[in-house]
Amino acid sequence: MRTGITHLYVPGPTNVPERVRQAMNVPMQEMRAHADGAMTTTQPLVDGLKRVFQQRRGRMFVVPGSPTAAWEAAVTNTLDPGDKVLTARHGEFSRRWVELAAKHGLEVEVVDAPWGDAVPVQELARRLEADREGRIKAVFVTHNETATGVTSPVPAMREVLDELDHSALLFVDGTSSIGAIDFRMEAWGVDLAVCGSQQGFMMPAGLAMLAAGDRAMAASQRTRGRPAHFDFAEMARLNDDGALPYAPPTTLFRGLEAALDLLFAEGLDQVFARHRRLAEGVRRGVRAWGLETVARDPRFQSNTVTAVRVPPEVDAREVVRIADDRYRTSFGAGLGPLDGKAFRIAHLGDLNEVMCLSALAAAEIALKEAGCRIQLGAGVGAAQSWFQANGTAEDMLRAVA
């Protein structure tokens, strides 16, 4: 008989705080009722999400679905079949956006980069500079590549577009970053950004968030077709009255309301500092094992997920299986070419130092049993030393200030 809880260290879904679970545990209500405290408007949620995205102008849409649904809405509302887009493919999720764009009839110019690298800004810049006729209508950037644990420099991409005076829209996938890693929609000149409820917002899957800036909204008015679902114009018209063009998932909205309250009570800068602190502890643990992360440049290592390369004689799938079967701990498997070669430790959402130490402890013993020659306790000890010697997340935030 298995006792205790299953420990969750995957980059989605993440742990759901008790307050959020309780907020969703309500009887079903008439979806647009005006009595008994039923949620009758989405405006407070929109306002809260704009704070997290650091967006003032434009539109914030929250829709039922996964981040993929938001990406599809972004593509179908602002681009026409045959339009050309530019993107890098350097991980599983950037690869999926290439597939999605192609399925919608877009001409996709792909720059392949090694898995473990950030977005190759200079090569994208070269392609944009060569686009004398302005055929490239959008550039897609994966802010945090969940498969490799790499965070790319979105501001650098905006600088390139501005320096070239290129009119392409800047699309950003913030699925495993927004709500946990600093993201600045307007300061970074992002035109469209998407994420989901099951990562930084500490909720079950089921809600997709899509932020559209003024340029994206203007582009949506010029497209030839209109999507049958998640039409920007229809959503904006109804949102102005606090309504939605579909059956609202009221229980998820209740959870999002509670999740936003938690983020703002902690303070967004504090949330980002906590994730930096926890991530560094995990990375020091990995180095103490004598192993490497998939992220090749320390400047771009993610603060929400660390992908760990295993030695050639070790099958990472066995590490994940042993951790799950014997120690009730869930890690992310390696994806694509990393299948069997790496596993992922997520340090994202509602977690603290001791939870990260538990992740390292479970990973150590699973690695050992899978045939990896490591010293038990080495990673845990390295992380403990880091946490003990470097104060709290509040101290890190004060040091930065």
What's the structural blueprint in terms of helices and strands?
Elements: E1 7-9, H1 18-24, H2 43-53, E2 59-64, H3 67-78, E3 84-89, H4 92-103, E4 107-112, H5 121-130, E5 136-142, E6 144-145, E7 150-151, H6 154-164, E8 169-173, E9 192-196, E10 207-212, H7 214-220, H8 232-239, H9 250-266, H10 268-288, E11 305-309, H11 316-327, E12 329-333, E13 342-346, H12 353-369, H13 378-389, H14 393-400
Parallel strand pairs: 1-12, 3-4, 3-5, 5-8, 8-9
Antiparallel strand pairs: 2-10, 6-7, 9-10, 11-13, 12-13
Helix pairs in contact: 1-9, 2-9, 5-6, 10-12, 10-13, 10-14, 11-12, 12-13
Overall shape? globular
Q: Using DSSP, what is the number of strands?
A: 13
Give the fraction of residues assigned to helices. Answer: 40-55%
Q: How many domains make up the coordinates? A: 2
On the 0 to 100 scale, the average pLDDT is 93
Which regions contain 5 or more consecutive residues with pLDDT less than 50? 34-38
Helices and strands, in order, run as EHHEHEHEHEEEHEEEHHHHEHEEHHH
**Helical stretch tally:** 14
Largest sheet at a glance? 7 strands, mixed
What structural class do you assign from the helix and strand content? alpha/beta
- Termini Cα gap: 50 Å
Name of the CATH architecture of the largest domain: 3-Layer(aba) Sandwich
Beta-strand content bin: 15-25%
Spatially, the strands of the biggest sheet line up as 2-10-9-8-5-3-4
- CATH top level of the largest domain? Alpha Beta
Radius of gyration: 21 Å
CATH superfamily membership of the largest domain, which one? Type I PLP-dependent aspartate aminotransferase-like (Major domain)
CATH topology of the largest domain: Aspartate Aminotransferase, domain 2
